[in-house]
Amino acid sequence: MTETLNVKPEFKKKSIRSYVIRGGRITVGQKNAFDSYWGQYGVSLFDGLLDTETAFARPAPVVLEIGFGMGDSLFAMAESEADKNFIGIEVHPPGVGCLINNAGKAGLTNLKVYMADAIDVLDDCIADGSLDRFQLYFPDPWHKKKHNKRRIVQPAFVEKIKTKLKVGGLIHMATDWNPYAEHMMEVLTLVEGIKNLAGDYQYSPRPDFRPVTKFEKRGERLGHGVWDLMFEKTA
């Protein structure tokens, strides 16, 4: 059973986006999750700069993930790494509803969610030097060459992420599309002030903190590869 979507993502007007806002249907359960849990987990783009210690009622390392999909892996990480505060950004309401529903039922207190354009959130809400880890898992690869400009991983984007990280902070990306993995590697390698933890132009093994998703397991059965990239901010 579904209900017409009446919850919309927040964003400022721009010419090029790295995502498409899909017209969608939201299940009754997901809609109910907004009614029950958005007040606890939701944060608005238009609230401005986020004071994480106030928002989470404690000081703790901060992990930010862009594009968490249906939220399964972000939920698992927030649950298993209770010593960290997690911020998720996603534009698709069904995924947001699913995540906050699971988080609410589990009683998580270390999660906040933006349903908004990620670049807008980075610009307006995330303080420079405030993040301990940044995550981008399986972003849209925009396969066609004419659409490559829509890929979120571009030099200006990585520079922006670097600015938001503390020195010693981690950039972790993963993709199952080899041409995009190569693109990510090239972009990350050319940005000054970050270093590849696996060595120059080397991919990293999947770290223990990143869960294997159902999507990834299905891909592995079909013989698809997954490439993890881990870079540390050095200056």
UniProtKB/TrEMBL annotation:
Return the broad EC class: transferase
Q: Note down the stretches annotated as region Interaction with RNA.
A: 146-151
InterPro entries to which the protein is assigned, alphabetical: SAM-dependent_MTases_sf, tRNA_(Gua-N-7)_MeTrfase_Trmb, tRNA_methyltr_TrmB_bact
Q: Under which EC number(s) is this enzyme classified?
A: 2.1.1.33
In what pathway does it function?
A: tRNA modification; N(7)-methylguanine-tRNA biosynthesis
* UniProt: S-adenosyl-L-methionine binding residues: E65, E90, D117, D140
Task: Answer yes or no on keyword Transferase.
Answer: yes
One GO molecular function term of this record is:
tRNA (guanine(46)-N7)-methyltransferase activity
One GO cellular component assignment for this chain's record is: tRNA methyltransferase complex
- PANTHER family xrefs: 3-DEOXY-D-MANNO-OCTULOSONIC-ACID TRANSFERASE/TRNA GUANINE-N 7 - -METHYLTRANSFERASE (PTHR23417), PENTACOTRIPEPTIDE-REPEAT REGION OF PRORP DOMAIN-CONTAINING PROTEIN (PTHR23417:SF14)
Q: What does this protein do?
A: Catalyzes the formation of N(7)-methylguanine at position 46 (m7G46) in tRNA.
The protein depicted here goes by the name tRNA (guanine-N(7)-)-methyltransferase
Q: Which organism is it from?
A: Pseudomaricurvus hydrocarbonicus
Q: What is the lineage of its organism?
A: Bacteria, Pseudomonadati, Pseudomonadota, Gammaproteobacteria, Cellvibrionales
